[in-house]
Design goal:
5-stranded parallel sheet; about 40% helix
Length: about 450
């Protein structure tokens, strides 16, 4: 038994509760009980004790769309890279990087990403991977890194026709093999999906091949209408919009994630809703790539399941929450917009997405939920209640305030010190690997 108490505990349940001197009791991988610190310490006198020291006790955060392969892009300078639009960004930056990633590069990209997640209180990651320099074994390398760090993760490989048929088939096989591995795993820590890049890099033949190699109980993770080029391509080649095309190829559904969804219309939103397809918003990426602001607020009002991701920009979910809040206010020219919708994405949408794949509740502190718990040192300067917690989150909290991270009942960071992970050794190796990748890129 493990007790985490002596802090302001936020359940994030329905209804949400704030316990002023709260405590969570953890038994193995599940939450046993939530209550008053004094009462639970009396009830479980022999339990291991973690003192929140008056800080916040919160559910672990979920990132619903990340790109581990982007880790080595930090600080990179690619010779001749001068993008004029989104396709230039893709080909000149991201596809260039992933074409030069080997298996060991993928592994260290994952280790660094998962370490950063732990330090930012992120306990579950849905990742969309690409490493066309070396495809076979890449998802398994990431899963090994997740196991080493103890992070819960759902992985897929980005299938695309951009590098030819053989690479496309390797990518499909990698997804299929990893899905089979996850179906046999009983830890509830690893899940697999069939990853797809975007409609404009996928032929009808490839979409059908992916569908044939994907079990019915597993969904697809795909970028949808992230740029107008995706829309124009679908209309020109197939006479239909992106969501309609994906529907016709049986890609949508309750287990599928549509990333971005920027340039979609009302009919497409209705198709996503009727099929139960999940949508993930990535505000910083959309702004950074200058591709536009998605109708995320409208999607939520229409009743779609919408979550929040980072698209590899950051591993701090609070940072993305703040960006989303400003983006939609600015885009809609409405200072009242996004107050409720953005917190919904992070604290309700992401747990709902997690529930489509993982067996136990995520993103909530209640009996029976997964024992993913974080402690932060946030000490509010104004009254904090269940009614105003989102305001405190938006204007007062950051991922780096995380002091202790517990995932699946195991302490992965305590008092800002990682447990059983040599961060300096990992970073030193990652810097060496990254330099080699950069050298290969600029030696083209």
């Amino acid at each position: 038994m493990l007790l985490v108490g002596n802090g302001r505990l936020v359940t994030r349940g329905m209804p949400n509760r704030v316990l002023e001197n709260g405590c969570v009791a953890i038994e193995e991988t599940r939450i046993q009980e939530v209550g008053d610190t004094a009462q639970l310490r009396t009830k479980y006198p022999d339990a291991q004790w973690i003192d929140a020291k008056g800080g916040m006790i919160l559910p672990g955060l979920i990132n619903a769309h990340n790109h581990i392969y982007s880790a080595f892009s930090r600080g990179i300078s690619i010779r001749g890279y001068q993008p004029k639009g989104f396709l230039d960004v893709l080909d000149g930056m991201w596809w260039t990087i992933d074409r030069h990633l080997l298996l060991e590069d993928t592994r260290y990209s994952a280790l660094c990403t998962y370490i950063d997640c732990i330090k930012n209180g992120v306990t579950t990651v849905f990742d969309h991977h690409a490493s066309y320099g070396e495809i076979p074994g890449s998802l398994f390398a990431i899963a090994d890194a997740a196991k080493e760090c103890g992070v819960r993760t759902c992985l897929c490989y980005e299938v695309s026709d951009r590098d030819g048929e053989e690479k496309m088939r390797q990518a499909v096989r990698e997804n299929a093999e990893f899905i089979r591995f996850c179906q046999q795993d009983e830890s509830d820590m690893y899940k697999g999906m069939m990853g797809l890049h975007a409609s404009f890099t996928l032929s009808d033949t490839t979409l059908d091949f992916c569908r044939e190699n994907t079990p019915r109980e597993v969904g697809f993770h795909i970028h949808v209408a992230e740029g107008m080029d995706d829309v124009y391509d679908s209309l020109k080649k197939y006479g239909k919009r992106v969501v309609n095309r994906l529907f016709d190829h049986d890609i949508l559904g309750e287990k599928s994630i549509a990333g971005h969804g920027i340039h979609i219309n009302g009919l497409e939103m209705e198709i996503l809703k009727q099929t139960g397809t999940m949508v993930v918003h990535n505000p910083e990426s959309n702004m950074g790539n200058a591709v536009g602001c998605p109708p995320t607020i409208e999607m939520i009002h229409r009743g779609l399941t919408v979550g929040l991701g980072t698209d590899g920009y950051t591993n701090d979910m609070y940072e993305s929450m703040k960006a989303a809040n400003c983006l939609h206010k600015h885009h809609l020219c409405d200072p009242t917009a996004a107050w409720g919708e953005v917190p919904y994405m992070l604290f309700q949408g992401n747990p709902a997405i997690g529930a489509r794949y993982f067996s136990h509740k995520l993103g909530v502190l209640e009996a029976g939920a997964a024992a993913d718990v974080i402690v932060t040192d946030y000490d509010p300067l104004t009254p904090l209640t269940a009614d105003n917690i989102d305001g405190h989150t938006l204007f007062g909290m950051t991922g780096r305030q995380t002091v202790t991270t517990i995932i699946n009942g195991k302490v992965r960071m305590k008092d800002r010190k990682l447990v059983d992970i040599d961060e300096q050794e990992v970073l030193a190796k990652a810097r060496s690997q990254a330099k080699a990748v950069w050298d290969r890129i600029n030696a083209r």
